[in-house]
């Protein structure tokens, strides 16, 4: 049984950004030599998400619009009330909306590996989603198998 762990580095440019990392994950699997097993893709950030869906530009715009609807930027979030937080340090961003979007999306996906390739549908892509761009981030990819 092999366990291989690598990071995919991401630098977002916009507030919400869907980054297709399918090829990077496939490359890590190929380099690992694992033929049968699983790959976990995990965002170790509380304002990011990882999801599988169709990489179609108009659909991505629909996703972004939906996320803004569920967690609007202009809403008041307790997280953003820095003056009330005596025991916590802030990075200065009012990003309660980004944390809420991450909660809705989730931070990981597990994909089966068969014959050295991910078992994804023909229109499925793996997205690392930054809800609090623009930032430098990393996504953890862990391959487990034989």
Radius of gyration of CA atoms, rounded to a whole number: 17 Å
By CATH, the superfamily comes out as YjbQ-like
Biggest sheet statistics = 5 strands, antiparallel
State the end-to-end distance: 5 Å
Q: Which CATH first-tier class would you pick?
A: Mainly Beta
Oligomeric state of shown chains: single chain
Number of helices: 3
How would you describe the shape? Answer: globular
Residue-averaged pLDDT: 92
Strand order of the largest sheet: 1-8-3-5-6
Count of spatially separate domains: 1
Order of helices and strands: EEHEEHHEEEE
Strand composition percent: 35-45%
Class derived from helix and strand content: alpha+beta
CATH topology: Jelly Rolls
């Amino acid at each position: 049984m092999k366990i291989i762990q690598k990071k995919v580095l991401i630098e977002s440019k916009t507030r919400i950004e869907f980054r297709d990392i399918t090829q990077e994950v496939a490359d890590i699997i190929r380099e690992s030599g694992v033929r049968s097993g699983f790959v976990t893709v995990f965002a170790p950030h509380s304002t990011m998400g990882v999801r599988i869906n169709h990489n179609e530009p108009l659909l991505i715009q629909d996703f972004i619009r939906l996320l803004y609807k569920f967690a609007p930027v202009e809403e008041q979030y307790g997280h953003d009330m820095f003056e009330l937080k005596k025991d916590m340090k802030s990075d200065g961003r009012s990003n309660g909306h980004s944390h809420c979007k991450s909660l809705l999306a989730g931070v990981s996906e597990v994909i089966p590996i068969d014959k050295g390739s991910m078992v994804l549908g023909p229109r499925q892509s793996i997205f690392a989603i930054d809800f609090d761009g623009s930032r430098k981030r990393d996504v953890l990819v862990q391959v487990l198998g034989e």
